Amino acid sequence: MDIATLAFSALYQFGDAFAFLVLSACGLAVIFGMMGVINLAHGEFIMCGAYVTAASVHAGLPLPLGILAGTLVAALVGVLVELLVIRHLYDRPLDTIVATWGLSLIATQGTLILVGSTMAGVGTPFGSFQVGAYSYSIYRIVLFVAALAVLGGLYALFNWTRFGVLARATIQVPHMAAALGVDTRLIYSLTFACGAGLAGLAGGLYAPTMTLVPTMGATFIMEAFVTVVIGGADVFLGTAPAGGVLAVVKSAMTSWQGQLFGQIGLLIAVIVVVRVLPKGISGFVLRERT
Amino acid sequence: MSALVSLLRRLEGPQTLGRGRGFWSLFALVLLGAIAFPLLTDGYTVGNTVYFFVWVFIALSLSLIWGYGGSLSFGQTAFFGIAGYGYGVLTINFGSAYGFTWLALLLAIAIAALFALLLGYFMFFGRIAGVFLGIVTLAVTLMLERFMAQTAGPEWHIGTARLNGFNGMSAMPPLTIPWFDEPIVLFADVGLYYVVLGMLVIVYLGLRILINSSFGNVIVAIRENPERAEMLGYDIRKYQLVTFVIGAALAGLSGVLYTVWGQYITPSSMGMTAAALPLIWVAVGGRSDLTTTVIGTLVVLAGFQALTIYGSQYALVFMGVLLVLTVLIAPNGLVLAVINWLTRLGTRRKQETA
User: How many domains does chain A contain in total?
Assistant: First the structure.
């Protein structure tokens, strides 16, 4: 095996890990960055997206539309959850964790009761291509591109739209934003929906690659948590670079010792990083700049 | 002697509910009832009650760390599992002769506490607090479950003890008291009941003393306002770390007793659901008080078991609803709310008659 195929293999695995980390984390990061709230039901929003996507594909929709449906349904559920539960707990972040934890329990077990212990999956589209002796799935490349597109889309949303300006104002000084006439409640609501929708998108995108079980959210949340903890509160200065760094750790450990050690590597990375950079990468970068 | 008296005086204080003759006579009455309980009922119910008691320790540990210390930890389940597995590995390797099971109990708890010390050092000295603490401990717990679940192959063993992956370990010897002719084996029956009840009373009273001592006051001060506690000259990191380690040891005790009770331990006892349940008991009971935590845990556990007859998924959905409603309606816990309401009612009546 020559250097070029080896390099491609490493790059491919990095891209795969990066896409997984960023896609599963950005919904969580958007909500955390906005409200300082950690949504422990994040995995269940991902599950919701995946299930709706699979169900729509079974009903005859093409996959991209199915993913769109998954995203929208997750976002709608997000609005509902925000309205019923999260809204009442903004001044108690720890209680939000506990409440969303309860929601996650309800969602997992409820899905188990309603849909059963497993759901028919969706085939992975596009097939594969050959580099050197190995074959690679094209869909994984699509996922990597999708991760970059999501980051780009979020950048555009927060920097170039009216909603983005209002949202950033609300993040910085909520009272001042409210005093200037911003409906901060609406902004919170929309941001939560946006985070839930992103989770649904992640679920929809990964639905063709995994088995659909009610506990599938748990596969995502550890990676999502780790990325958000290391990244800190800012999506662009935090989540993206954290995704990059962690993807290197994960893909290296995985190709060296297997999947589990890739995850253990992530965990050790996060524990060491919180000791050195308590506010995450974005906290570090922002402190450097000011 | 005077040291003992001042220690006993700490049984009552500002951080715990219940004081005076009334409370302690009630306590004695409940204790008497608990002692008489095995005489009045059958072996199955006694074994089942031991099972309830086993969980109270982990609930108390969560009350200490979360309710009093203000740091939400999902790691209790991890310490529970570590100690449970530790006990299994030790006793399967070295047997139960010469009272070794008791040493294994202590060693298993020590392993869990050591792990907590290491993890806690990185967290508290990294000044991780609030929601991040919850996430990091949850990530550790989930990781541990995944790690143990994949240890199915024969290459995963410690000494002669196979870890057995998802099926977990079983057939470890129960706690054994060495006796002259024949050692007393404590199966999940009357014998174990009294041992665990004794431990429970000691731990409960010990925690009351701890939490009403100056150490406990500092812990509560940190919960109320970490910056202020620090300005007053306390190194809050050390206090938080010590609390965390004590909590881990208690959770470890729970894990060992669980393993002893059923003579098995599986990775799913460290999973998401397992981590959620103690949180629910403590939240519903009233996390910021030891007594309400004990009551809440026993009540919710009994309720959960009664519901499980209709299917454990439904019971878990109900538990989730209960948790969400508690957080929304009675953030300090339902049992605590009821007790506070009763006390207020009592004082009002007193004022009216006066």
Answer: 1
